[in-house]
Design goal:
mainly alpha, single chain
């Protein structure tokens, strides 16, 4: 048989995009780009029975994946609601508290629209209630720790990320 594409391969001509990708892979192999990769030459740890989720289970076993990313959105929203006091304390201004409460409630509504038959629901956060709670938390922390006025430090000059080139 003769060459189909004149490139030493037999069979029907290759799609130009596939040929380009195959060529790039062959060039990378020739350069040695795939040498010394972690796990090279080692067999895959495949289960004895067919399991389409073997790869994610293996990544979970190696602690290579954030387990919270696998939880349903409603569970993450409920956790965020339970930790709202810590989040509110970090916000410096009232309008940011209102924006956060509105954003949280919008995310709750999006989850409810996406899962209308869900039995578990995350609570909404009223902006006015969030501001009232924010004020309570701020006064409680202000009473617990007196604020000390520290002298403002002079801002340091920003260091260049590239050590070569123009000098000042």
């Amino acid at each position: 048989m003769s060459d189909a594409g004149g490139n030493g391969r037999r069979g029907p001509p290759m799609d130009p995009d596939v040929a380009k990708i195959e060529g790039a892979i062959e060039n990378a192999i020739a350069r040695g780009d795939f040498d010394d990769l972690p796990g090279a030459g080692k067999p895959l740890d495949l289960p004895a029975t067919h399991d389409p989720d073997w790869w994610i289970k293996q990544r979970l076993a190696e602690d290579d994946v954030d387990r919270d990313a696998l939880l349903p959105v409603v569970v993450l929203l409920r956790r965020e609601y339970e930790q709202r006091d810590a989040t509110l304390l970090e916000l410096p201004e009232e309008h940011l508290v209102r924006e956060y409460a509105a954003d949280f409630t919008e995310r709750v509504h999006e989850d409810r629209r996406a899962n209308p038959l869900s039995r578990m629901m995350a609570p909404e956060m009223d902006p006015d209630d969030a501001v009232a709670r924010w004020r309570e938390l701020r006064t409680a922390t202000a009473d617990a720790e007196p604020v000390r006025a520290e002298p403002a430090e002079e801002p340091s000059r920003r260091r260049r990320w590239w050590p070569f080139g123009r000098r000042r």
